[in-house]
Write a structure and sequence with these properties.
The chain has a single domain, classed as Beta Barrel (OB fold (Dihydrolipoamide Acetyltransferase, E2P)). By secondary structure, it is of the alpha+beta class. The protein has five helices and ten strands; from the N terminus they run αααβββββαβββββα. 28% of the residues lie in helices and 30% in strands. The strands form two sheets. Strands 8-1-2-10-9 form a five-stranded mixed beta sheet. A five-stranded mixed beta sheet has the order 3-6-7-5-4. The two termini are 27 Å apart. Strand 1 and strand 2 form a beta hairpin. The longest helix is centred in the first third of the chain and has 24 residues.
Length: 204
């Protein structure tokens, strides 16, 4: 057990990671056809539309959120906190990394770490879904990372008044990671508390 912990806490060799990315570049380019590129452009355009929509409602009682799937539950984050959405298949694993750290992606030549949101929340995901999904790239300058999710649903507006238990946990998570549950069983996550998880400490 102590040996496994030692391996997980070992410093990440970023030079080796970059070398691995270069080695996989040809395979990635072959994997992602023009269709994938088009999908990525669509996601970028949607992200810009999301941000514009959020700015209009920032001072109101309406929250614009992006909804996504983890396990059998639907979750959401304020759209203003998200910068971009990309396919998880672009993620390159890091040997010896903690279980929560799925790997890195190259976003316009910048390396971004990808963290498994389900693992951070303590949720059990289907092993089949481990290599599928999407990455929510955060807008945060302090934590320029991505969160892996099972699937992305839509952008929608919710009223603050419809969120129950805003000051505590939900029955779904049973911990500090939730701000509450919307009337349609949509769980609003507390991003600040999510980013307080130990896995993010070495990524700053």
């Amino acid at each position: 057990m102590s040996q496994n912990k030692s391996q997980e806490r070992a410093p990440i060799d970023w030079d080796a990671v970059r070398e691995r990315l270069r080695a996989n570049q040809t395979a990635l380019e072959s994997l992602f056809s023009s269709r994938a590129a088009k999908n990525k452009l669509v996601f970028q355009e949607r992200a810009e539309q999301m941000a514009a929509r959020v700015r209009k409602s920032a001072e109101s009682d309406i929250i614009s959120v992006t909804t996504f799937q983890l396990g059998k539950e639907r979750y959401c984050l304020p759209t203003v906190d998200l910068k971009e959405i990309i396919p998880f298949a672009q993620c390159t694993p890091i040997p010896g990394a903690p279980a929560e750290l799925k790997g890195v992606v190259s976003v316009r030549s910048d390396l971004r770490c990808v963290v498994d949101l389900a693992a951070v929340l303590g949720l059990n995901e289907d092993p089949i879904e481990d290599k599928r999904g999407y990455i929510l790239l955060l807008r945060s300058e302090t934590f320029p990372v991505g969160l892996k999710v099972k699937s992305v649903h839509q952008v929608q507006s919710i009223e603050r008044a419809t969120i129950d238990n805003q000051d505590g946990a939900t029955s779904n998570l049973g911990n500090r990671f939730s701000k509450g549950v919307e009337a349609n069983s949509l769980i609003l996550l507390n991003l600040n508390n999510v980013l307080a998880h130990p896995v993010f400490r070495d990524l700053v």
